[in-house]
Specification:
The complex is a heterodimer of chains A (714) and B (73). Among the domains of chain A are: 4-162, 3-Layer(aba) Sandwich (Rossmann fold), CATH 3.40.50; 173-256, Helix Hairpins, CATH 1.10.287. In chain A, 46% of the residues are buried. In chain A, helix 5 runs antiparallel to helix 12 (235-254), helix 16 (337-355) runs antiparallel to helix 25 (500-534) and helix 22 (440-449) packs across helix 29. With 714 residues, chain A is α/β, with parallel strands linked by helices. Chain B is an alpha+beta fold and 73 residues long. Chain B contains two helices and five strands; from the N terminus they run βαβββαβ. Chain B has helices at 22-30, 64-67; strands at 12-18, 38-44, 51-55, 58-62, 70-72. In chain B, strands 4-3-2-1-5 form a five-stranded antiparallel beta sheet. In chain B, strand 2 (38-44) and strand 3 (51-55) form a beta hairpin. The longest helix of chain B is centred in the middle third of the chain and has 9 residues, at 22-30. Classes of the chains: A alpha/beta (714), B alpha+beta (73). The A-B interface holds A 58-59, 61, 63, 89-93, 96, 233-234, 236-237, 240-241, 244, 268, 271, 275-278, 280-281, 382-387, 389, 484, 486-494 and B 17-18, 21, 23-32, 34-37, 42-50, 52, 56-63, 66. Strand 12 (489-491) of chain A pairs antiparallel with strand 4 of chain B, so a sheet runs across the interface.
Chain lengths: 714, 73
């Protein structure tokens, strides 16, 4: 028979490892409806049954989307059974969720994971006693070492088949009698098997249950108030206290602890240094520098693996083998010139430019996944939280920003781990302000254009940080992003060796996501832009004189927008900015072509720019392109995080607008200091922009949202 | 009234009461900080906040502003 089994458990208890062990390659990833949380489903090996991985949760409260998704799945989709995976080395806190799952009245098995660690600690767990006290079968396993997984499968199948529901657990009499009353009030209004779960949630004044069964709580209000009076506490605290008391009793009867090493566990000893006052931050800087170095470095000391591989893909694989090869093939087979151009210069070159990132990204992913698996990322959030808190974000936003300095795509993807939805969305929208690897050639060209101004690079990074901070402040005032930030209460799991299969799988999944993006969005947009730049408005194919193309026409219109920024009515600059959407370094390539520069080396492009525009205009061009919409690959990644095209559009529009404002201000300020000629309207716009920004930053509720008079919630 | 925020690093205290309300209080309790439980204050982050505590056998980090809500003895 084919059953649907739900897999539930705390974060960091080995759930993913167990899921992989049970389902192997049959797993598919989707989305839980209405939220941007991954939904993994797979077939349990050796059976016909499906395993649904519920998000890692600590409880079944109504407060976080992960908890709500899990509750609703169990209550509405009615799985045949639940596997509750529990970390044996962290038994008390893990059992808190178990007790709530037991209340649901669904056939359930507790998978007691990490038994190998219990053994090495010298502790002992009386599994039978535990099972008896909890009223459900308990199966000891080690997901990491693949011990007794078969035993677990056999047990869960049997439990599902026999519809073996949990034996009732009883709490304090006072609460149990209240629960009985609640069950009476709920009878007939909720599924019978889940009634105990609902009864307890009703007592806890659970908002979702109150919604489903309005007025039910009033029916028990007399007894409820009496209880609250007696305990001098709110009902939900009473229930939670009670559950933990029960857990303490159960654990003390079934768990025997061996004497501990005085020096603390290995994790504790490592953390003594890694999160210490003195070494914490230097170690962090060192590790990030190392990651960045391995993935990105391409300078005087030679090429690091990441940079080398990317250069190889771009210059050799595509530049020397594929593109000329394809061109030759087209010529040999009499393919028409336009089509050849589309194939080689458009599709292959464009997609190739993006795929060229793949080696660097894979290496970056490998480093990051290892850091995550090892448990170091939690330490980073712990160390950095103070700074981020000041700007209304949390320490967990830091990693995506760091990753974004290598490449925006994995940077945005790294936002997945931020629990607070508001923080996640804001960080995803601002990661691309950090200058990524592709923007480095642009920095080089501008540095050359400004006669070797060394500060251009520093300015780019510093500006990125400032814009992230500004955005954090402004965006938090938007009601839909301000609500319900998750409190920063975070577990610091023990360090452990990264597991090969999980890590490899993570790296593969992320890289493949990126490739798929390249294959779809980028392919489409590259084709479009190629067509636009190689056809005149009368649809004549052109190979040179791109100034007659549709793109140039569009650029010409857009150029008006950029006149106040000092760019002159240059269609070339506007068009180049547009092609920056494919890949930021394309900006330079395009400029080289349309400006007919000697080459696309920084010095040559820089020279031409220096001849074309004033220094402040060059700077405003630089600033705008650094911070406006990121490349299509990054936009695609942002879409994946934000969920809808509407929100993605808003995010991109926000970035462009902010970039424009900042470019305007920079242009005017720098130009005045530098003595460049600035038009009166530029001054005017700069002042307007500065005022708007100041307003958004300072005023509590700048967006005048109804029902949100105080502005930022926390 | 002593709170967890005032507790010195290295000391162990017992929880008397948890303040706050709604999601925050619930979250604190869900993570195992309930009346009567013992908490060991392990360290403070390099920049002064958050704090790391040991509760029910595992490591938890929380901001001082939440620690202030936890009355201890």
């Amino acid at each position: 028979m084919s059953y649907t089994i739900a897999l539930a458990g705390n974060p960091n208890c080995g759930k993913t490892t167990l899921f992989n062990a049970l389902t192997g390659s049959s797993q598919r990833v989707g989305n839980w409806p209405g939220v941007t949380i991954d939904k993994k489903v797979g077939r349990i090996k050796g059976t016909d049954s499906e395993l649904v991985d519920l998000p890692g949760i600590y409880s079944l409260s109504p407060y976080s989307p992960e908890e709500v998704v899990s509750r609703n799945f169990i209550v509405d989709e009615k799985p045949d059974a639940i596997i509750n995976i529990v970390d044996a080395t962290n038994l008390e806190r893990n059992l808190f969720l178990s007790l709530q799952l037991i209340d649901m009245g669904i056939p359930m098995v507790l998978a007691l994971n990490m038994m190998d660690q219990i053994e090495s600690l010298g502790d002992r767990i009386d599994v039978d006693k535990l099972s008896e006290e909890l009223g459900i079968p308990v199966v000891p396993i080690s997901a990491a070492k693949k011990q007794n997984i078969d035993g677990l499968v056999t047990r869960i199948m049997s439990v599902a088949e026999k519809k073996q529901t949990p034996h009732l657990m009883r709490y304090d009499e006072a609460i149990e009698s209240l629960a009985e009353e609640a069950e009476k009030a709920l009878s007939g209004k909720v599924p019978e098997e889940n009634i105990r779960f609902y009864a307890y949630k009703l007592i806890e004044d659970d908002s979702l249950v109150n919604e489903r069964v309005p007025g039910a709580r009033d029916a028990i209000s007399v007894s409820l108030n009496a209880l609250e009076e007696e305990y001098d506490d709110s009902a939900d605290s009473i229930v939670t206290d009670n559950r933990y008391e029960k857990i303490s009793a159960i654990v003390s009867e079934s768990y025997t602890k061996a004497p501990r090493d005085e020096r603390g566990t290995l994790s504790d000893r490592i953390d003594k240094i890694v999160t210490s006052r003195i070494f914490g931050i230097p170690i962090f800087i060192g590790i990030i520098a190392l990651v960045y170095f391995i993935a990105m470095y391409d300078g005087d000391l030679g090429q690091a693996p990441g940079a080398w591989a990317t250069a190889w893909v771009n210059d050799v694989l595509f530049g020397e083998i594929i593109e000329p090869g394809l061109t030759q093939w087209c010529i040999d087979n009499g393919v028409n010139e336009a089509l050849t151009g589309l194939l080689v210069d458009g599709i292959v070159h464009g997609v190739g430019a993006v795929l060229g990132f793949l080696p660097q990204m894979i290496i970056l992913f490998i480093c990051l996944v290892i850091l995550e698996e090892v448990g170091y990322m939690a330490r980073v959030a712990f160390v950095m939280d103070r700074i981020f808190r000041y700007f209304n974000l949390s320490g967990k936003s830091f990693i995506p920003l760091i990753v974004g300095t290598g490449c925006g795509v994995p940077g945005v993807m790294a936002c997945r781990t931020i629990e607070s939805e508001a923080d996640r969305r804001i960080t995803a929208m601002t990661v691309t302000f950090m200058p990524c690897g592709a923007k480095l050639p642009v920095i080089a060209a501008i540095t050359a254009a400004l006669a070797g101004a060394w500060w251009v690079g520093v300015f780019a990074y510093f500006g990125g940080i400032v814009l992230v901070i500004i955005s954090g402040i402004i965006l938090k005032k938007l009601k839909h992003l301000a609500g319900k930030p998750a409190p920063f209460i975070m577990e610091l799991p023990p360090y452990h060796m990264p597991r090969l299969y999980s890590s490899a799988k993570s790296v593969f999944d992320r890289s493949w996501s990126f490739v798929k993006k390249a294959g779809t969005i980028i392919l489409l947009t590259v084709v479009i832009i190629w067509v636009l730049s190689h056809y005149t408005p009368s649809f004549e194919y052109i190979d040179e004189n791109l100034g007659d193309s549709i793109l140039a026409g569009i650029g010409g219109v857009l150029a008006y927008l950029f006149i106040p920024l000092g760019w002159g009515d240059s269609w070339e600059l506007a068009s180049a900015t547009l092609t920056g959407l494919i890949a930021k370094e394309d900006l330079i390539g395009t400029l080289a072509v349309v400006l007919e520069s000697a080459s696309d080396e920084a010095e040559d492009v820089g020279d031409i720019l220096a001849q074309m525009m004033s220094q402040s205009a060059i700077l405003s061009f630089f600033v705008f392109n650094m911070y406006c919409a990121p490349c299509f690959a990054a936009i695609g990644a942002i879409h994946r995080e934000l969920g809808t095209w509407k929100h993605t559009g808003i995010a991109v529009a926000y970035q462009c607008l902010l970039a424009y404002f900042v470019a305007m201000i920079v242009y005017v300020v720098f130009g005045t200091i530098n003595g460049d000629a600035i038009e009166w309207y530029s001054y005017m716009f700069a002042v307007i922009d500065a005022v708007i920004l100041a307003y958004l930053l300072v005023v509590k509720d700048p967006f005048r949202q109804l029902g949100n008079p105080g502005g930022t919630e926390e | 009234m002593t709170t967890l925020k005032d507790t010195a690093v290295g000391s162990t205290v017992k929880v008397r009461k948890i303040g706050g309300e709604g999601a925050l209080k619930r979250h604190i309790m869900d993570m195992g900080i309930t009346k009567g439980v013992e908490i060991y204050v392990r360290k403070v982050a390099p920049l002064g906040d958050p704090v790391e505590v040991t509760v029910r056998g595992y490591e938890l980090s929380l901001r001082k502003e939440y620690a202030e809500l936890i009355e201890v003895e």
